[in-house]
Amino acid sequence: MVKHIVSSALLFFLYTLINSLTASAAPLQVVLPYEIFNDAALQLAAHEFADTYHAIAGAEASVVPSGNADTQLDSLIIHIGIDLPDGTPSKVQPPENDEAFSIYHKDYATLILYAGDIRGAIYGLFYLAERLKLDPEYLKNVNISNRKPAFAFRYLGSTPENGLRGGYNTVGAVGDHYKYLLFTDIDPEMFKDWEKTREEIIQRQQDANKEIKRIKSLHLDTITGSDEFAFPKALINRPYAKEMLRPDTNYICFCSGKIWELYDAKYKELLQVFPDVDIVKLRLGENYAKDDYFGNIVGDVNFWNDCTQCMNIKYNDRIATVINRTHDLVVSSGKRRYIHRSWDTLDNKFHANPEVYLDIISKLKNKDNLYISIKYTATDYWRYTFPNPTIGVGDVPQIIEFQNQREYEGKGAFPDYMGEEFTEAYRYIKAKGAVGVSNGGGGGWGGPVLKTNMWNDANFYASGHLMWEPNLDARTLSEEWATINFGKQYAKGIADMLLLSDDAVLKMIYFKAYAERKQSKWMTNENWVRDDVIKPGERLSIIYHVAADKVDEMIAEKDEAIQVVKKMIGIAESLNLPEPQRSQVLESLDYEYRLFSVLRNYCAAYFFYRRWKDTSNPDDLALARSAADAWQKDWQNYQSLNDPNLKWTASLYKDDGMVETMEKIISEIKF
User: Fold this and answer.
1) N or C, fewer C-beta in 10 Å, the chain?
2) By the 8 A CB rule, do 28 and 60 touch?
3) pLDDT (mean) for 573-596
4) In terms of DSSP bridges, do strands 654-655 and 533-534 run parallel, antiparallel, or are they unpaired?
5) For residues 585 and 648, what is the distance between their CA atoms, to the nearest angstrom?
6) Residues 524-547: tens digit of each pLDDT
7) Residues 436, 188: Cα–Cα separation, whole Å
8) What are all long-range contacts of 83-89, with beta carbons under 8 Å and residues at least 24 apart?
9) How many other C-beta atoms lie within 10 A of the C-beta of residue 248?
10) Which has the higher per-residue pLDDT, 23 or 464?
11) Tens of pLDDT along 229-259?
């Protein structure tokens, strides 16, 4: 019965006294169909709506099954069926696709939410809850016609509950799936001397299947992902290892027949162990197999030259071979979908070179249920790298990847709102024909370690709404997010601050003159800062060498960044936010101001010092001395933030060569 209902069109009738959403609101009951009353996702959405109604209207709200409703109470009644009931206005039409929904007034006291399927119904309830948070009187005049996602595939790198709330339809279930396999069919004794590893694999399988079951109960699709090639170290001492590994190394030979036997066995077992996984995702451009596992990068251009036979297998052919083999296993035999991430390093290969991209695509034998996933950036998530020139190229459907927690830009230790960049990006990829989006969190290594994810949430709010409505603008999205998280009276000020924040980061972390002159899009700022470390002068030396004639402009850029941060601080202070929001905002901005002061004077001291060495101009020596003196004070001032009394301040950036560079400069320019 439930299966039939889920596959049918879903019709949701929301009966509520619209005028009750006032100070004198009456109790409300959300009535779910009896036969699917316990559906986990529907319960989650219904309770969120009921809880929001209670918080906004000040009246009690409950969720009950049909047949148990109190006829004396105002009700939000959810009816599921494939036929429109008598009395439905003629303007009510079925949504255009399964995940869409429409909301109409039937009369002054009745709303109709008509959804294409159960996902659409869940999305509709969450959307109503969100709109109520933005406008307590929203239900009085609501009229939504066929709200539908702009992208069919929508992945969120977070919990399934957050995925549902955000309107996503896919989440991750199994990461690094090479850690979940025993290779029993091809080598039952592979782990005979690795019993602890074997037990860990079995436990991981059990835990993952429980999580997959939970995700599926929420009507979301599941992904398992991995790098290739990656295998357990247990096979290194197996008799056949010499057939696939180069002598005295753990390097896998692409030309070996044994590697493909193991590869086939891996994916057959994967789909047997996880029968409910919907999608397999692979990456060939990086590989971080470690501990009990080892791996090699299939996409490495030079690695394979170590083998005379592998030398004859060109890069494009290697990539196409793996995709074709995987497609046979996953799609043709396994009846699942296959997402291939084109990601690799630099900008001259599959990920960012249209010529290479098209050549690889031309070698693919079967493209059914195959998708290519591409970062919006030409290389990694630096500025001055978008859009990726392979977006819209070829005939394989594309999924575009975005990063919401900016790994090269503080990771959320201070505001870095990408709303303006995202609005431009989503419109661009939609026009280019992308079928999906992938919204991940952060990457990289180490910190900063956050005590609040507030600023990253602002980015997730923007990207999550743009995948449904790409024509939304950054100002609207920022004010909505601020209204929900701070209150309507503070929304404009918070939005003003957010819309400045990305400019401050751009001007401090990057060097426009250098980025525009650099031939490659790889490391457009040479990673002079990344994660939570500040690198030595060698990184700044590369920038100076390319843009020595632009030193004054580059330092002015840093000065502008600090002025923007000061303006943001002024806005935040003027808002008189209540606690804890006031401390959260001001502590993060103080962190940003002190860090940026360190970075500004590090750059200034280094660049003016280098120019003085080149020109012997005494003015440059004076500027270098001034910046170095300020840097010493600023570095000490920044480190004082390592204070347990600062409840919301992220962990600090660490020195990774900056101090040694500055000590050398100071020793040469001291009075």
Assistant:
1) C
2) yes
3) 97
4) parallel
5) 9
6) 999 999 999 999 999 999 999 999
7) 40
8) 83/11, 84/11, 85/11, 85/13, 88/112
9) 6
10) 464
11) 999 999 998 999 988 888 777 788 888 899 9
Write out pLDDT tens, residues 405-435: 999 999 999 999 999 999 999 999 999 999 9
φ, ψ for residue 578, nearest 5 deg: -75, 165
**Token duo for residue 184:** 């029993």
Say if residues 197 and 190 touch (Cβ distance below 8 Å): no
Structure tokens at 76: 């939000």
Indicate the pairing of strand 398-403 with strand 337-344.
unpaired
Residue 420 makes CB contacts below 8 A (sequence gap 6+) with 474, 499, 502
Beta carbons of 95 and 116 less than 8 angstroms apart: yes
- Rounded Cα distance between 74 and 67, Å, is 15
Q: Which of 446, 379, 383 is nearest to 418 (CA)?
A: 383
* Encoded tokens for 538: 């060698």
Structure tokens at 408: 């090269």
* Strand order from edge to edge, sheet including 101-107: 10-15, 110-115, 101-107, 144-147
Q: What is the C-alpha separation between 544 and 336, in angstroms, rounded?
A: 51
Question: What single-letter amino acid sits at 130?
Answer: E
Partners of 115 in the β-ladder: 10, 101
Query: What pLDDT, on a 0 to 100 scale, did the predictor assign at position 78?
Result: 56
CB count within 10 Å of CB 397 equals 18
pTM above 0.85, yes or no: yes
* Residue 156 β-bridge partners: 171, 439
